[in-house]
Amino acid sequence: MTKNMMIVGVGGQGSLLASKLLGYLLMGRGFDVKVSEVHGMSQRGGSVVTYVRWGEKVYSPIVDKGEADFIVSFELLEAARYLEYLRPDGQIVTSTQQIDPMPVVTGAADYPRDLTEKMRALGVRVDTLDALGLAEEAGSPKAANLVLLGRLSRYFDFDESVWEEAMEACIPPRFREMNRKAFALGRNA
């Protein structure tokens, strides 16, 4: 059976490293893995989506509406934006960070209020955490991706050493310790 994940955020938040690390980890467990990146307007703070699919045999890298087992979101509005892709029994893991999209910046719209509560009112399983704050505690706001992966790891039946091995393989040596700390903060938050 194929599993599907979407990693969503805003350009520059580290979603590509997160998908690379997940792909490495899942391939190391013997799964066929397909990863696909959709960049959008990432250079201008636009939406970025990465698909990660794994199973015995995966034929397409794209996740269709209603198929995502997980949505990992670096920003709250992005979690809500991709809600229709989540399976009825799917899980969202999201940062509480809010980044104003261009219509909010220009004053044409307001940032939606109470997004977490609205998603939960629809029956969606939403796990929120202050990934940015925990990343800053680990040493850099850029480590929010590892905070989110740490939280996501709680939904997988893999030993922590498997995640450690993937970090070792995918993160440059000078950033490993900070990212290990970020991962642990997310996992234990």
Please indicate the count of domains: 1
Structural class: alpha/beta
Number of helices: 8
Pattern of helices and strands = EHEEEHEHHEHHHH
CATH second-level architecture: 3-Layer(aba) Sandwich
Instruction: Provide mean pLDDT, rounded.
Output: 92
Helix content: 40-55%
Rg, nearest Å: 16 Å
* CATH topology value: Pyruvate-ferredoxin Oxidoreductase, domain 3
Write down the CATH class. Alpha Beta
Report the sheet with the most strands, covering strand number, pairing sense and barrel closure.
6 strands, mixed
The proportion of strand residues reads 15-25%
Report on the architecture of this protein:
The chain is an alpha/beta fold and 189 residues long. It has one domain: Pyruvate-ferredoxin oxidoreductase, PFOR, domain III (Pyruvate-ferredoxin Oxidoreductase, domain 3, 3-Layer(aba) Sandwich). The chain contains eight helices and six strands. Helix 6 (144-153) crosses helix 8. It is globular, with a radius of gyration of 16 Å.
